[in-house]
Amino acid sequence: MKLATFKHNGRTHLGEVRGDRVYLTSMAESLDYMIQRGMLPTIRSESLPLSEVTLDVPVHPGKIIAIGRNYRDHAKETGSEIPKAPLIFAKLPSALIGHGEAITWRASITQEVDWEGELAVVIGRRARRVREGDALKHVFGYSIANDVSARDLQMRIDAQWTRAKGLDTFCPLGPWIVTADAIPNPQTLGIRTTVNGAVMQDGHTRDMIFPVAQLVSYCSEMFTLNPGDVILTGTPSGVGVGMTPPTFLKDGDTVEVEIEGIGRLSNPCRVEAE
Length: 274
What we know:
Blueprint: E1 2-8, E2 11-18, E3 21-25, H1 31-36, E4 43-49, E5 54-55, E6 64-68, H2 72-77, E7 87-91, E8 96-97, E9 103-106, E10 113-114, E11 117-123, E12 139-146, E13 149-150, H3 151-157, H4 162-166, E14 171-179, E15 190-195, E16 198-204, H5 212-222, E17 230-232, E18 254-259, E19 263-272
Parallel strand pairs: 6-17, 8-14, 9-19
Antiparallel strand pairs: 1-2, 1-5, 1-14, 2-3, 3-4, 6-7, 10-13, 11-12, 11-17, 12-14, 15-16, 15-18, 18-19
């Protein structure tokens, strides 16, 4: 199932996406509510064209755990060592935006805004010290994320990652969640990022250093994963900072991340007035 949170006529709804339509559920509860309780919605026959609704952030996680340098070619392009264990950092829930919403920043804060298309894992069952062989049983589904990063803050000004990765709008997520039964093996997915239609990243989840099951297990050894929590699994090569010369997002750009079997997450970019 492709489960979406969306707005129509000023109200928020939950529905299942099929083709170019979204079918409403018979329940008023949010997707967050259902994930917390291990439920799936009952789908009605009533539907709306996707073109007539506004997609929202599909889930509102308690925590967003991100994995750095989880593709060898990406580590190499940034001049970094290949990690011997998953490199964990956090993104802030306040950074979340949905499909179609604008990634925004102020030039006085950052001038080197980069893209990082990533597979997002949505936890469905509480996970604490779970074995790798059981880890995928704790996954509710998968979505698409863009780990937007202010490289000047990350690499020179702050020399750490919290502000660079956590600015408002720096975590696009969506356009919906595909339930885990539809993706039995998350290591079989192509992932592509484009900026204004030009391909920047063209990778595959089979190239992860630490696959999804290992990431879920490893993270659960450090802290409890609760239903609705999200893990961003790292980005393949092709980010702007690794180009010659480095290339960054600018006002008016559109960045899109597409993952096989899930869909396409699209966001315009806008530099805000001071």
